Amino acid sequence: xxxxxxxxxxxxxxxxxxxxxxxxxxxxxxxxxxxxxxxxxxxxxxxxxxxxxxxxxxxxxxxxxxxxxxxxxxxxxxxxxxxxxxxxxxxxxxxxxxxxxxxxxxxxxxxxxxxxxxxxxxxxxxxxxxxxxxxxxxxxxxxxxxxxxxxxxxxxxxxxxxxxxxxxxxxxxxxxxxxxxxxxxxxxxxxxxxxxxxxxxxxxxxxxxxxxxxxxxxxxxxxxxxxxxxxxxxxxx
Length: 237
Fold this sequence. Notes:
- The chain has helices at 14-22, 35-41, 49-55, 60-68, 105-112, 121-124, 126-139, 148-153, 155-166, 189-192, 214-231; strands at residues 2-8, 27-31, 75-81, 97-102, 142-147.
- 41% of the residues lie in helices and 13% in strands.
- The protein contains eleven helices and five strands; from the N terminus they run βαβαααββαααβαααα.
- The longest helix has 18 residues, at 214-231.
- α2 packs across α3 and α7 (126-139) runs parallel beside α11 (214-231).
- By secondary structure, it is an alpha/beta fold.
C-alpha cells in the first residue's frame, strides 16, 4: 500500500484534488482524517465543531497508525490540512509520499474570511507549510510542492507529471467527476464544499482582482514571504 498525504492550505482546491484521486480504481481517498484531532487540541471555532469531534477519532497518532497498517487498496490518498499537524508524532511522514499544496495567500485570506472572520496565521497555515517542507527535507522524505494555480491552468499535464513522480500510472478519469456531494465527504462538507459540489472537473484558473481590508492586508504581508519561498520548490509544468 502506498500512502499519499496532500498537505493543503485552507480554501484551496484540495477537495477537487481529492475527488480527482477518487476516480481511480486503485485508490481509497480519506477526507481530513486529522480534523477532529486538530479541533480537540486547538482554540479554533469552526462550524459544526462538536459534531466533527464526535465523528472521528481525536487521537491523531492512532488515526495515522491505523491508516498505515492497511494493506489495501494499492493507494490511499489522504486530503490533509497542514495546520492540523499539532501535538502529533510526525514520524509517519517518512512512510508516505507528501504533496505540499500551496495557493497565493491573498486568495486564501479572501476566501477563508467568507466563512470565518478575522483569520490568523495559524488558520492560513502558510508558515506551517514551509516548516513542513523543511521537516520533509530533513527526514529525506518524499515530497512534491504543487501550486493550485498550475494545477488549474494545466490539469492534465500537472497530473501526468505528478503521477510519474509518484510512480503510479496516470488515469484519464482523474480529470472529471460527477457533480454533487460524494460519499468521501466529511460531515463538514455542508459548510465548506458548496462550490466544489457544482464542479465536474478542475475549473480553469482565473486571476481575479482581490481587495483586502487593513487586517487582512497585514496578514497577507506576513504570509507572502513564506509563500514565495515555497514557490521556489514547486513542481514546474
